[in-house]
Amino acid sequence: MKSSFGTQPTPRTSQPHAEKGQGLVELALVIPVLVVIVIGVLDLGRMYFTTIIINNAAREGARYLMQHPEDGTITDKCSFYNGPYSGTKCAAMREAEYSTPKVVDLNPDDITIPLCDDDYGGAPDGECDAEEPIRVTVTYAFNPILWPGVFTFQRSVEMLVP
Known about the structure:
- By secondary structure, this protein is an alpha+beta fold.
- It has one domain.
- It contains 3 helices and 3 strands, in the order ααβαββ.
- A hairpin with an 8-residue loop joins strand 2 and strand 3 (about 150-160).
- Helix 1 (about 20-65) runs antiparallel to helix 2.
- The protein is rod-shaped, with a radius of gyration of 29 Å.
């Protein structure tokens, strides 16, 4: 019985002619697909992060309005956004601005605050009465990287005035 312990495998001197460059061609075919998948995953993550930011902005605006029910008609609290806006809009814009990294750039027109008096039949004084629900809605147009068009996200938060 012969032992193959001391024998070395015969080295392959060259590949057959048909297999040369096959790995490079396969890599060239697979890389664009992988790049599209990675960019799509990153875009979905950005989309999810955007919905979190606008949800937090709506919540912060509603919390501010709940604590300051007279804020329905006051328009001089926040002049550092190139114009006088209510404190509720400022609180929502500030919440979106301080997100890291800054993904969402809210405008005052993206934030809707229906006055309590209009929706629930209160007196037309611009203030939200106690035990009256207030609602802040934030709408944002999201531009994805891979898909054409714009997705519009809208989040509303409703709280009661104490």
